[in-house]
Design goal:
This protein has 283 residues and is an alpha/beta fold. Helices cover 42% and strands 13% of the residues. It contains ten helices and nine strands. The chain has helices at 8-11, 17-27, 48-59, 92-112, 136-156, 175-185, 196-200, 205-212, 242-251, 268-282, and strands spanning 2-3, 5-6, 31-36, 64-70, 116-119, 160-164, 190-193, 219-222, 257-260. The strands form two sheets. It has a six-stranded parallel beta sheet with strand order 2-3-4-5-6-7. A three-stranded parallel beta sheet has the order 1-9-8. It starts with a strand and ends with a helix.
């Protein structure tokens, strides 16, 4: 197993690419998951040359990019999590817009040499299904339709779509749902992107791994909480048993990249350092 820097931690603290690289070097990370938002490598507007320049910078530090993490939200909606690109949207024009966005993300991943794209399944804007104009099943079918098209596009380019069970989606939260989605798409280019903090508000993370352990992509997110809220805290500030999580991953034969994804603006670099130290000890 290898440890990597999840750059969203720093991006949300107001830091840009140059600072990401400095922090990675300072903390001894040799891998980085790049955060793609409107201020950082936004796929619709960032050129291949800009991505090549960034990759050249990383090559001088021997840092590789195993994955990219796009933020498919409306501008300025962090905290409210309004999706601009929703793969499960029932409006066909909106759904197509999301599919085309993720195709651009796949192209970005190829340019960065990344083989995994974190993929959010979309959102049901009215989670009270007694009020929603469309059922959960209908949104699920739209998601599978989107992923089947994207799987063909990503597969042709050697990229895997890692579907994450992000609490902000109000959708595809449980391990059996993740398994159903991946098996419905039925492509080696669509797998599960596991996140310990998101899992822990529903079930112990190891229970997820019991169900979807054979479907994991090459990168996972780790952070801590007490199971009451989907906080992403440094390891040791919550109640997740990371020794059991790592032991379970080893028993599955999983040997990918573990990325601390903490949203901890009080001390983001210190929090990352704590995560790295504790994970190295556990591994």
């Amino acid at each position: 197993m290898k440890l990597g820097l999840q750059c969203g931690t720093l991006a949300l603290a107001g830091m840009g690419f140059g600072e990401w690289v400095k922090v990675a070097e300072e903390l001894g990370f040799k891998s980085m998951e790049l955060w793609l938002d409107r201020d950082n490598f936004w796929p619709p507007t960032t050129s291949k040359m800009q991505r090549a320049d960034a990759l050249q910078t990383l090559s001088t530090t021997n840092i590789n990019v195993p994955s990219v993490c796009p933020l498919p939200l409306e501008p300025g909606s962090w905290g409210e999590f309004r999706f601009e690109f929703n793969l499960a949207h029932f409006d066909e024009r909106s759904r197509r817009k999301a599919v085309e966005f993720y195709k651009q993300v796949v192209d970005s991943a190829v340019d960065f040499g990344a083989d995994t794209v974190l993929t959010l399944p979309g959102k049901i804007d009215e989670p009270d299904l007694m009020k929603s104009p469309h059922s959960y099943r209908q949104h699920l079918e739209k998601l599978v339709e989107s992923l089947k098209e994207l799987a063909a596009y990503a597969g042709d380019r050697g990229v895997v779509l890692g579907v994450e069970h992000a609490v902000v989606c109000n959708f595809i939260d449980l391990p059996w749902e993740l398994r159903y989605v991946v098996e419905s798409v039925n492509s080696e280019s669509v797998k599960v992107y596991f996140d310990t903090a998101n899992a822990n508000v529903f079930l112990p993370p190891t229970k997820y791994l019991d169900v979807i352990g054979d479907l994991l992509c090459k990168t996972i997110h780790v952070s801590d909480n007490h199971g009451d809220r989907p906080l992403h805290l440094p390891i040791g500030m919550g109640g997740i048993d990371f020794r059991r999580v790592v032991a379970k991953l080893k028993s599955l034969g999983w040997d990918g990249y573990i990325l601390p994804e903490i949203f901890y603006n009080e001390a983001p670099i210190g929090g990352l350092r704590t995560c790295k130290t504790r994970l190295e000890e556990i591994i």
